[in-house]
Write a structure and sequence with these properties.
By secondary structure, the chain is of the alpha/beta class. The protein has helices spanning 4-18, 43-51, 55-65, 89-101, 131-149, 165-177, 200-216, 218-233, 236-259, 277-286, 324-338, 353-365, 401-417, 424-444, 456-459, 467-486, 502-512, 514-523, 527-547, 556-580; strands at residues 28-30, 39-41, 72-78, 82-87, 115-119, 153-157, 290-293, 296-299, 313-316, 343-349, 374-380, 383-384, 452-453. Bound molecules: arginine (ARG). Monomer.
């Protein structure tokens, strides 16, 4: 379906042309005086210079052409030369009916579908998920869903950090605690046990302990570095331990992501691309791009137009070890080989921007990707506490994701049971659903690149620009529809009639924007645009709701029309919510 603004634009440009003016002057925008009209065209003012004519004259010439246009209730030329447009009730109703009758409420899939690899999540194995990983998961999941809704093939890859020093640290600490384990016997040739010699709880305690000790104890740190090296060289016992760590950790990660309604197609990680590194380094060196600098292998990536210094991209350290850049480059090599995507999009903390500038430039210079393969970086800002500093626990430690979710759910639960009699079990389940909306909407409603303040009280409020408010509105619609059905009515084959009051028109106008908003939001990789849209839509609905008798409406045709509009608004809201990565309960 065409966007409503394009339909209006079409009429206006045609009218400019018929009146003898350049069609391009007929561009229409949303009105900035919604009290006067819904859409407007300022083209007459711009055309005045070209045609040496008063803008109001031009505007009048144009409006004369539109006198009998069925789209408009009125088209007025007003001083000094604005054209104010008010839509006809029939046209708007017809647009609503078309939306309601189409599978996807008027959204057409893209005519150039792309294969996009979305690199998001990025948790580190054996380290607990913390709020820093929250944003990547939330924003990435939403982009994945938005892209799919628009008809692209989006492959989400969690890209585990599973190959770094943290592995060596855990192995070293385990050896301290349980030196008798068979994994540490160098001459052992038998099979290793299937069960891990630790639980996730132990693992989560081992890593911080090891990390803390390594900062104070140099000898310990060197042992951990050596263990990392040996693991990477393929020492059997360490490999077996590493497998256990991965297994235990991934099981736990999957559980946590599931609670966030986040799902990955690929569970690949840094370790998966190790086999590509030697060949990649050889090619870079053979082609002359990479050279030795104080023992390390580097590639120059700075460009003349740089305003900031872009240091060379380091491919191997002087001891031959691979780095973060190395694995990211090798991952590009693998992704091109296995998936041949049109685009790789990374959703990572914006503080890593320079890393990605280096990686992208190096990949391009070396021809690892094709000329038209897009490499994009969506850097997100920090989630801060109310003190404006990165979000911490009350004790000042790093907040674990699990605990954050628990706190939100507790708060939601309190609000839900307040003044209400509701079964404990139902209240808990609802609190989880609404809690998730609070976290996700709180995050997504901000432009991704900006820092934002995580404000528990505000995010969990049922009023204002929040997830719970959006859900509350959706549930309100659902319960009206449920009551209507309980009265013995069918929700099928209903027709939307022209609006009878202003708030109804306003609701229709807001609803009509859906296809434009969703396409544009993905284009700009901006989930916050969907958030602003549903906030406006929810406001329009609530205003309409307070002014309108719906179930009490006596004229049955009108009642059916109101119900049909509600169904459409519910579908739009629920689609948007789903694309953002959360859902609405039936009741709350
Ligand atoms: N594991 C990394 C971190 O915690 C994020 C990974 C982002 N993705 C990537 N391809 N580098 O900082």
């Amino acid at each position: 379906m065409k966007k409503i603004i394009d339909l209006i634009d079409q009429e206006m440009t045609a009218a400019f042309e018929k009146a003898g003016y350049e069609a391009s002057y007929g561009k229409v925008t949303l009105s900035n005086r919604p009290d006067l009209c819904e859409y407007q065209c300022n083209g007459a003012m711009a055309a005045a210079k070209t045609y040496r004519k008063a803008p109001i004259m031009i505007a009048k010439d144009v409006t004369a052409q539109l006198a009998s246009c069925p789209l408009f209730a009125s088209v007025e030329a007003v001083n000094p030369g604005f054209i104010n447009i008010r839509l006809a009730g029939e046209f708007l109703a017809e647009y609503m009916n078309q939306m309601a009758g189409s599978q996807r409420m008027g959204v057409e899939k893209t005519d150039s579908p792309k294969k996009i690899i979305l690199d998001y999540g990025g948790p580190n194995v054996a380290k607990p998920l913390h709020v820093g990983h929250l944003r990547s998961a939330i924003i990435g999941e939403s982009l994945k869903r938005m892209g799919r809704y628009m008809g692209h093939e989006v492959i989400g890859d969690v890209h585990l950090g599973d190959w770094g020093l943290q592995m060596g640290l855990i192995i070293t600490e385990l050896q301290e605690r349980k030196p008798e384990l068979v994994y540490f016997q160098e001459d052992y040739e038998g099979e290793y046990p299937e069960e891990a010699p630790f639980t996730i709880g132990e693992l989560e305690e081992i890593y911080p302990a090891a990390s803390a000790r390594s900062k104070e104890d140099e000898e310990y740190r060197n042992r951990a570095l050596e263990a990392t090296h040996q693991l990477q060289m393929g020492r059997r016992g360490y490999r077996a331990l590493w497998n256990h760590i991965l297994q235990v950790s991934v099981t736990d990660l999957k559980k946590n992501y599931a609670r966030l309604n986040v799902e990955f197609d690929l569970w690949k990680g840094e370790s998966d691309v190790q086999e590509y590194i030697p060949g990649m380094v050889k090619e870079l060196t053979d082609s002359g791009l990479a050279y030795e600098d104080q023992g390390a292998i580097v590639v120059d990536v700075k460009e003349e137009t740089d305003t900031k210094e872009v240091p060379p991209c380091m491919i191997l350290k002087s001891d031959g070890a691979a780095l973060y850049t190395t694995t990211d480059l090798a991952t590009i090599v693998e992704r091109m080989k296995l998936y041949h995507p049109d685009e790789i999009l990374y959703v990572v903390d914006k503080r890593q921007e320079m890393h990605f500038v280096q990686v992208f430039r190096c990949a391009r210079k070396a021809g690892m990707v094709e000329e038209d393969t897009k490499l994009s970086f969506l850097g997100f800002g920090t989630m801060n506490g109310k003190d404006g500093k990165p979000f911490k626990t009350r004790e000042g430690g790093v907040m674990r994701l699990e605990n954050l979710i628990r706190e939100i759910n507790e708060e939601m639960y309190r609000k839900i049971v307040d003044n209400r009699s509701i079964k404990e079990k139902d209240a808990r389940a609802t609190a989880e659903t609404v809690g998730l909306s609070a976290i996700k909407y709180g995050d997504l409603s901000n432009q991704a690149s900006k820092d934002y303040v995580f404000d528990m009280d505000r995010f969990t409020s049922f009023e204002g620009n929040t997830g719970p408010y959006i859900l509350y509105t959706t549930v309100r619609i659902k319960s009206i529809l449920a009551k209507y059905r309980e009265e013995g009515n069918s929700l099928e084959d209903l027709k939307i009639l022209p609006f009878a009051q202003d708030s109804e028109k306003a609701l229709m106008l807001e609803t009509a924007k859906f296809n434009g908003v969703i396409a544009n939001a993905f284009e700009d990789k901006a989930p916050h645009k969907i958030c602003s849209y549903i906030y406006e839509l929810a406001n329009a609905f609530n205003r309409f709701y307070h002014e309108t008798r719906i179930l009490g409406e006596e004229n049955q045709d009108r009642k059916r029309s109101l119900i049909a509009l509600l169904i459409l608004v519910r579908d739009v809201l629920e689609t948007c919510i789903d694309v953002l990565g959360f859902s609405a309960p039936e009741k709350m």
